[in-house]
Write a structure and sequence with these properties.
Helices cover 33% and strands 25% of the residues. By secondary structure, the protein is α+β, with helices and mostly antiparallel strands. It has two domains: 134 residues, PurM-like, N-terminal domain (60s Ribosomal Protein L30, Chain: A, 2-Layer Sandwich), CATH 3.30.1330.10; 142 residues, Phosphoribosyl-aminoimidazole Synthetase, Chain A, domain 2. β1 and β2 form a beta hairpin. The termini are far apart. Bound molecules: adenosine-5'-diphosphate and magnesium ion. The site of adenosine-5'-diphosphate has 13 residues, from α1, β4 and β5.
């Protein structure tokens, strides 16, 4: 059965998630969000293009889920409360099975992030997904990249490099990773979890924050530049999962942990007296210099779309 644009929106994209702030969601010309007095909007958008951000034959639910988590992670990094999201979808064809799976991915990400789907756009063309997320915070009370001060501790949540290892497994048949760890690492790539609760907890406590989406070294560089400080990373302190610690090639493991993207953990700076949140660890210090220093590492790069 051929699906028209409006049937398709009605069937797959209405009624996903809810929030008290939403006055009007999918179905009108614009969504309406009402924030409590004294709050500001925090807004971010992220695009995922077939063949660039995911393989054309990826599972539709994974594509949708990852696109939403990548966008939601930016709200986490700012310490925002999730309010709603918009989804602009460009599709080569309206295939009911594909769309049903895609909508499942939206639904599970919406449940986990507490972001209701409040609108979007649907067009025909090469597969592209743009997710715009909206959050809120009290006026003047949100995390930024720019507040790190010399002497602050540099900290990170969770473990790093898992998603890059998971992608390596998905990309090629044999990475030599023990089979016991394969499912965990793949899930770290396919089902990341934006650190929204941690971001809100750090709001008002951390002096700066950024999410690790392009790789630790690169994202630490963004934070350092925005704050006008240097950061010193202790390579040995970078948290590794059991799966990565078990891997036989420590040089490759370090590459994944320092340069791999897509973990969506939070990198943040804490003043000395602040308590370290659960599941977070100190990996270095903020210095009065410039740029990122990490002993034993020369080229401080990660993923860059325009690098040649
Ligand atoms: P308009 O022509 O006024 O731009 P559309 O026909 O594009 O409106 O969309 C109708 C309604 O469906 C709007 O509320 C829009 O936000 C919503 N919508 C369209 N596509 C999507 C989508 N992929 N996901 C969620 N909502 C969507
Ligand atoms: Mg209109």
């Amino acid at each position: 059965m051929a699906l028209g644009e409006f049937d398709l929106i009605e069937r797959y994209f209405s009624q996903i998630g809810e929030s008290p702030s939403v006055r009007i969601g999918v179905g009108d010309d614009a969504a309406v969000l009402e924030l409590p007095e004294g709050h500001v909007h925090l807004i971010s958008t992220d695009t995922a293009v077939s063949g660039v951000h995911f393989l054309p034959d990826s599972q539709p639910d994974v594509i949708a889920y990852r696109a939403i988590m990548a966008a939601a992670s930016d709200l986490a990094a700012m310490g925002a409360k999730p309010e709603g999201m918009l989804l602009a979808l460009t599709l080569p064809e309206a295939n009911a099975d594909w769309l049903a799976s895609f909508a499942d991915g939206i639904r599970s990400a919406s449940e986990l992030t507490l972001l209701p789907l409040i609108g979007g756009d649907t067009t025909r063309g090469p597969l592209t997904i743009t997710v715009t997320v909206m959050g809120s915070a009290p006026i003047g009370c949100y995390l930024t990249r720019s507040g790190a001060r010399p002497g602050d501790r540099l900290c990170v949540s969770g473990t790093l490099g898992d998603a890059a290892a998971g992608l390596a497994i998905l990309d090629r048949a044999d990475t030599g990773i023990a089979s016991a760890h394969v499912a965990f690492l793949k899930s770290r790539f396919n089902q990341p979890m934006a650190r929204l609760a941690l971001g809100r907890k750090l709001n008002g406590v951390a002096t700066s924050a950024i999410d690790v989406s392009d790789g630790l070294l690169v994202d630490a560089g963004h934070l350092a530049r925005s704050s006008g400080v240097g950061v010193i990373i202790d390579r040995e302190a970078v948290p590794l999962s059991v799966a990565l610690r078990a891997y036989a090639d420590p040089a490759q493991t370090m590459e994944w942990a320092l340069r791999g993207g897509d973990d969506y953990e939070l990198l943040f700076t804490l003043p000395d007296q602040a308590e370290m949140p659960d599941d977070c660890i100190e990996i270095g210090r903020v210095s009065s210099g410039v740029g990122v220093r990490c002993d034993g590492v020369e080229k401080l790069t990660g993923y860059d779309h325009f690098e040649r």
